[in-house]
């Protein structure tokens, strides 16, 4: 298992990395040195667009939850929910769900729970 660096990236460091053409998103930094890395929420056209060094970039993945069955769930702020196989990063399932609260995913007893912006708690599973 890889060692996680808990060092928080500063605005200065993010600007320096962005100025070199890197993408200093939290999710990219957390994924440094992974077995796989995938951005399944950004279209090919968006990925191909150049960006001006120093531009503030955003990442709209609002929540992630790692399940014990080898799946990583991630939900975009627009409600695109995807399940990734943790061995290779492939998308194994996807659905449109209500817009999530920030960090609004949880897993318990084999069920996935989503807290929505409208204040609801949605349970996925039997």
SSE order and pairing:
Blueprint: H1 11-19, H2 26-30, H3 44-48, E1 61-66, E2 71-76, E3 80-85, E4 91-96, E5 100-108, E6 111-116, E7 121-124
Antiparallel strand pairs: 1-2, 2-3, 3-4, 5-6, 6-7
Q: What order do the SSEs take from the amino end to the carboxyl end, as H and E?
A: HHHEEEEEEE
* Low-confidence blocks of residues: none
- Which outline best applies? globular
Q: How many separate structural domains?
A: 2
Provide a descriptive summary of the structure in words.
This protein is α+β, with helices and mostly antiparallel strands and 126 residues long. The protein has two domains: 59 residues, no CATH class; 67 residues, Thrombin, subunit H (Beta Barrel). Helices cover 15% and strands 34% of the residues. It is built from three helices and seven strands. A four-stranded antiparallel sheet has the order 1-2-3-4, with no helix packed on it. The longest helix has 9 residues. The chain is globular. The mean pLDDT is 83.
Can you give me a brief rundown of this structure?
This protein is of the alpha+beta class and 126 residues long.
Task: Provide keyphrases for this structure.
Thrombin, subunit H; 15% helix; four-stranded antiparallel β-sheet; 126 residues; globular; alpha+beta; three-stranded antiparallel β-sheet; 34% strand; 2 domains; 7 strands
């Amino acid at each position: 298992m890889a060692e996680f660096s808990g060092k928080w990236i500063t605005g200065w460091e993010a600007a320096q990395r962005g100025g070199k053409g890197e993408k200093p998103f939290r999710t990219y930094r957390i994924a440094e040195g992974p077995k796989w890395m995938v951005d399944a929420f950004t279209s090919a056209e968006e990925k191909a667009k150049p960006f001006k060094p120093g531009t503030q970039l955003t990442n709209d993945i609002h929540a992630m939850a790692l399940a014990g069955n080898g799946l990583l769930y991630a939900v975009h702020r627009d409600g695109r929910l995807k399940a990734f196989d943790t061995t290779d990063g492939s998308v194994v399932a996807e659905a449109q769900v209500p817009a999530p609260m920030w960090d609004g995913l949880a897993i318990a007893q084999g069920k996935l729970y989503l807290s929505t912006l409208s204040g609801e708690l949605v349970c996925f599973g039997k």
